[in-house]
């Protein structure tokens, strides 16, 4: 007879991750694919969506640089800012590729973290 004892089953954790985590995410992705082909990329709405997405990413990066937590908080603020600016400079000068800016900024940050280790 089904009951709460099924929660102890070895497969329950995987089923929970799939149901509670993956399924809701995939539903939105499927809806995006279904309706995204009908959207005009140059419309005012899409420009607003891109602006909001860019602002959210900028806010997260600013929070990580200005108010870090964990090991990142041990790196001096000036070194975190130098890593951010170095990554941005690499992005601008090396073809405006996001991956280049991220990798350069991360390399600078890792170098700063290694330099400040006791």
From TrEMBL:
Keyword Transferase: no
Superkingdom per UniProt: Bacteria
Keywords on record: Membrane, Transmembrane, Transmembrane helix
TM region positions: 12-36, 48-66, 72-91, 98-117
Full protein name: AzlD domain-containing protein
């Amino acid at each position: 007879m089904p009951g709460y004892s099924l929660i102890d089953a070895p497969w329950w954790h995987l089923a929970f991750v799939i149901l509670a985590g993956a399924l809701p995410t995939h539903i939105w992705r499927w809806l995006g694919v279904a309706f995204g082909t009908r959207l005009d990329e140059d419309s005012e709405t899409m420009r607003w969506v891109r602006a909001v997405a860019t602002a959210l990413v900028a806010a997260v990066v600013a929070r990580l640089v200005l108010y870090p937590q964990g090991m990142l908080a041990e790196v001096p603020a000036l070194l975190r800012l130098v890593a951010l600016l170095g990554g941005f400079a690499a992005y601008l000068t090396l073809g405006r590729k996001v991956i280049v800016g991220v990798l350069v900024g991360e390399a600078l940050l890792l170098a700063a973290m290694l330099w400040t280790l006791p």
